[in-house]
Amino acid sequence: MRFLKYHALGNDYIVLNPADFGSQLEPSQIKLICHRNYGVGSDGILWGPLDTTECDFALRIFNPDGSEAEKSGNGLRIFSRYLWDRGLIHKDPFTILTAGGKVRCRVHKDGGMVTVEMGNVSFDSSQIPVEGPVREVIDETMDINGQEFRFCAATIGNPHCVILRDEVFADEAQKLGPLVENNPRFPNRTNVQFMKILNQNNIKIEIWERGAGYTLASGSSSCAAAAVAYRLGFCDSEIAVHMPGGIIDITVSDDFSISMIGPVTKIAEGTLFLEMFDQTL
Length: 281
Known about the structure:
By secondary structure, the protein is of the alpha+beta class. Helix content is 18%, strand content 41%. The protein has two domains: 2-117 and 264-278, Diaminopimelate Epimerase, Chain A, domain 1 (Roll); 140-255, Roll (Diaminopimelate Epimerase, Chain A, domain 1), CATH 3.10.310.10. β9 and β10 form a beta hairpin. The protein is globular.
């Protein structure tokens, strides 16, 4: 079974074409494929292209814990590059359908940069979702391990919790990220960003991804954090999001539609062997 592996600023995904795989993916198989020791190792699996009449292509996105993600900005850039590598793109821009909505994509030059129009960010608690009365979840507080944190919540097709900090650290994201991800106020769990405002056009984030854990970069997290920074008036509409893996450039429109541009790197392609699935984790 053929696979291809790419990364976007250190956030790595395996692309599996259902036509090559020959069967549906089971959660146990997803966990093994993504495992860093017993499988190929990745931050997730991109399963496509799938049949659709709504867009040019369709995609499903799976986390390393076997759960399904509605949307992934880095995953969409990687999948766009995969389609470009396979010679499947015949229009510019082209559209991709995800469980978190439709996006428009454009692959630039040699395939090394990809733009994705990610859709609209909403702060509506009923859409994210967040427990409690229907409201915009802006500049609220939560208690984590006896410490009070300011946060905003948002969705761009998948849920995010952006925590405002004077400084951000990887160890804090790793320690507190899972507690926020699984906080009861987020019934579908949530992605978590710890955000520092650098200036009007730059922010810095550390990321804990729902179903994946600590990661070096995230496209949808960059979109959510930039939207929060713009909504709170800390930043202008053009925002560079700095992460351990690198920088993604975000443009936030007045209606909170988001455009993202960032790099993609092809790592490897190869064959998955069936004996891998004889293991149990």
